[in-house]
Amino acid sequence: MNATIADLKNRFEDALVTAFGDEVAGIDPLLVPTSNPKFGDYQSNVAMALAKKLGKAPRAIADELVQTLDLSDLCEPLEIAGPGFINITLKTEYLQAQLAVMQRSDRLGVETAESPQRVIVDFSSPNIAKEMHVGHLRSTIIGDAIARVLEFQGQDVLRLNHVGDWGTQFGMLITYLQEVCPAALTTADALDLGDLVTFYKKAKQRFDDDPAFQEAARQQVVTLQSGDQKSDRAWKLLCNQSRREFQTIYDLLDICLTERGESFYNPYLQGVVDDLEQAGLLVEDQGAKCVFLDGFTNREGERLPLIIQKSDGGYNYATTDLAAIRYRIHTDGANRLIYVTDVGQANHFAQVFQVARRAGWILDGVEVVHVPFGLVQGEDGKRLKTRSGETVRLRDLLDEAIARARADLETRLKEEDRHESQAFIEHTSHIVGISAVKYADLSQNRTSNYIFSFDKMLALQGNTAPYMLYAYVRIQGISRKGQIDFGNLGADIKILLHEETEFALARHLLQLDELIGQVSQELMPNRLCQYLFELSQKFNQFYDRCPVLQAEEPTRTSRLVLCDLTARTLKLGLSLLGIQVLERM
RNA sequence: GGGUACUUAGCUCAGUGGAUAGAGCAACCGCCUUCUAAGCGGUCGGUCACAGGUUCGAGUCCUGUAGUACCCGCCA
Fold it and tell me: How does it assemble (predicted)?
């Protein structure tokens, strides 16, 4: 209905000028969806806004505007209500025609972007030599959903995995392994990843406690950075091992990423320093090269520096992020850079973006945006941990979700005396478990902290993945029972809306394109979740009130189309969240 | 100390400057001879943290206060 709104908006703008003169040219008619279905489909709030400017009562303005407007081809007669709201109800024939258009479209009436943007979505970004843990969950899931929505719009999306494959951590790890397990530095898979993680923790401990070790580790970083062959080989071995482990999780989650780690930008770091130097932004302070920031101060009120090159000559992550911005805009040609990381990095990104802007790297028309999300907390409201106090491995978390979904399914099969194949049970519990985790995360406003609960996300009722999967399954049930091929309902189908629940469902279906536009702008996947949940509710209400297969023609076919549109919308919407549907469950 | 975000029903959370602030869960009451009841309907539940301000209109914008979380110089 994007086109409908655009059309209404134009007609309102014209009518405003006709009624009140050029004084109101270009005024936004403030068309929004109504807050309550009893007010119709859309409302204009412009009369209240113009009251002061025109020196007239809002209702009088509304009245004049309504006299001027002719929307009889689209709408029922306009109504003025309350202080001066103009309520717009679309004609039933119009809704029916729009549904027919949607039905015929393989994109459900959602247009592709007119001029596709080059968009880079930077998400997931685990660290080499560490296991992916629950902290990576949100970035991975949210980033993937955002990328999918933009891809569906036809944007040219590059999904980048900015893995932590460089820096001090490797100095620590290599130095430590030289001492305790040199074989790991020369032989592939001499250690399994679990051991590597243990070694990493021990190395970190040494680094924090032992100044001599710290120095050796720093020196090792310099050696690595200078291109030393032995170090380079060890580094590559470690990276490969981690990479394979990450991939099993991405496969499990059905998520696709292009790896371009921090090390990728090594050749460009010196260029960052040179550029900043040339721009006159670089200041040497206590041996480190810094850019002093606007609007960031320490406790004495002095401007804070962003360290670009450390006193030992090394670079840190700010430098890498700056090099990445420069590369992504100037070499990749990106128009939009999206960083999906936890909100704790908000400061860091604000600082880096500021420096990039001042250095002139962010070209006109390029949007650089941090998409932050809150912490994953346990049911106690604290950072999610295992019972023993460790961070939760992502692998374990996903396995548990699947196991719980499976236990749940098997209980139900027993209760209902159903018999299903092993393959069915495996597949269903996998989809239900993974979807539940994804949906629980995505359905929350990403900026707030989120309380992780298996019980809630796997619940069969409420705003959960299983509820929506079930709505889809119900529709497939109709198709099986009636031997209906939704893809072949007939060429010239009439959709007829009579019942309240049919109207409510139809109106909701027609909002899909507006919603996708919004999500792609605001990058808030929870809005898509909300839409799909409401769609499922409205479908279930329709399903409850309106028999489909037993209905007389032409109602029967019309209802079948509503079912088909609902199923396709659910399938598409869920796919944009990275969630697959099931035919039966 | 500075910065940022948050505070909405018993719990978990939505909420785009517009009309009587909404869901889900929990509790209680109904509805399966029917396309899967994993569903639907209903009841109960609110000082939108507090105090000011802007506005025709504020949960939403601004200021202040309180509480909570996160970030703050060579880790990422």
Answer: Monomer.
Residue A6 Cβ < 7 Å to strand B: no
Do A244 and A290 fall within a single domain?
Answer: no
The verdict on residue A134 lying in a domain is yes
Minimum-distance nucleotide, CA of A164 to C1': B76
Q: What is the ipTM of this complex?
A: 0.94
Q: Please tell me the number of Cα atoms within 13 Å of A62 on its side-chain side.
A: 22
Whether the CB of A527 is less than 7 Å away from nucleic strand B comes out as yes
Q: What is the count of structural domains for chain A?
A: 3
Question: What does the block give as tokens for A110?
Answer: 């959602």
pLDDT range class, residue A369, cuts 50, 70, 90: very high
- pLDDT at position A161, please? 96
* CA end-to-end distance (rounded Å), chain A: 33
Assess whether A346 and A271 both reside in one domain: yes
pLDDT averaged over every residue in chain A: 91
Within 7 Å: CB of A531 and strand B? Answer: no
Nucleotides on chain B within 7 angstroms of protein Cβ: 1-7, 12-19, 23-26, 34-41, 55-57, 69-76
Ramachandran bin of A389, using left for φ above 0, alpha for ψ from -120 to 50, beta for the remaining angles: left
> Which CATH number belongs to the domain containing residue A138 in this structure?
3.40.50.620
